[in-house]
Amino acid sequence: MIARKGGNIANETKNNIEEELGMPIVSKNNNLNYKYKDDNLLNNTGKE
């Protein structure tokens, strides 16, 4: 229940900022580039 409330607050905040700016704050250009290989999370460096 607490996590859901936190998620809702974060979503509302993101939506308010996007409305104020008139553009999305998360895009293909500024998101984290994570890749999955054999169910292990790899970060931008490619190290497991």
Query: In total, how many beta strands?
Result: 2
Overall average pLDDT: 78
- Spatially, the strands of the biggest sheet line up as 1-2
Rg calc: 15 Å
The number of distinct helices, counting runs of at least 4 residues, comes to 1
Q: Provide the structure class.
A: alpha+beta
Q: What percentage of amino acids are in beta strands?
A: 5-15%
Helix content range of the residues, please?
40-55%
List the uncertain runs.
none
Q: State the distance separating the first and last CA atoms.
A: 32 Å
Shape: flat
Instruction: Give the topology string: H per helix, E per strand.
Output: HEE
| Oligomeric form | single chain
- How is the main sheet built? 2 strands, antiparallel
The domain count comes to: 1
What does this structure look like?
The chain is flat. The chain has one domain (2-42). It contains one helix and two strands; from the N terminus they run αββ. A hairpin with a 2-residue loop joins strand 1 and strand 2. Strands 1-2 form a two-stranded antiparallel ribbon. With 48 residues, it is α+β, with helices and mostly antiparallel strands. The model has no long low-confidence stretch (mean pLDDT 78). The protein is 42% helix and 12% strand.
